[in-house]
Amino acid sequence: MKRNTWLVLVISAWISSLAFAFTPKNPECIAPAGAGGGWDFTCRSVGQLLFELKLVPQQIKVTNMTGGGGGVAFAHVVAQRNEDANLIIAASPATTLRLAQGQFSRFSENDVRWLGAVAADFGVIAVKADSPYKTLGDLMAAWKADPSKIAVGGGSAVGGQDHMKVLLLAKAAGIDPRQVKYVPFDGGGQAITSLLGGFIQVFPGDASEVRAQFEAGTVRVLAVLASKRLPAPYASISTAKELGYNVEWIVWRGFYVPKGMPIEAYEYWSNALKKLGQSSQWAKIRQDNSLGEFFMAGAPFQVFIARQVSAFRNLSKELGLIK
Fold it and tell me: Where are the domains of the chain?
């Protein structure tokens, strides 16, 4: 056997051994909010499909860890599970926004490792089905007349993702963002319950979060915060841009992992996400939950996160949320 051929075979065998050097034991996904919200959906849908596709050897345990708009979970991972190779944590722009604003105590985006994104969700403006606001125009007229009379509740903390949506909408409508009455909840599920109970009048959530209630006829969606109309069941709902408000909010759904996770474990999870993202089963889940196609993993995702945190920091300063 020629020396070069032998060397190629040795290197190939070494690379193959690396690919199988790690297998998770008792894998876990932390959803940094209560049941029913976007992070919970991300953990449960991805975790279940990873198991069904045999990309993980056993069912992934989902742990709901509420508090601080994701800050409790973030601190838990950094301080207590920095080297846990079996752990993935659901994330979205709500995570990067809070990091940009310095809301996770002394921690920053550099204290974890960013794994990847598997889909895109889109912001929506929703009200209860029997709300007097039948159109976005109705809501904006009442809001401009007296901002204090309309309570807006979201599944993120003050200054978080859902709050940011309505601040941008208020700004586009000529309403002083400081007059927006915002009520924070730990996750979209709690916010929707509050909307249905009449405790808040508007929920600036995500398309996947409100889909079940929308199809059941218990909520009305006044606008989607996307660049173009979404497919069914939202096909008839106008974008905010169509209605004269230049506001978009695209929500990637993905994961970060402990920074000290061994490289072979990081590669394992990254490759598992890639295979999931390419599967027809995931395409169907995306379609069934009004999620758009958006996939990024590994180094490109790390760069994307760094840029998004920087952009959110500048936007937060512009809206007066931070100095």
Answer: 22-121+251-318, 122-225
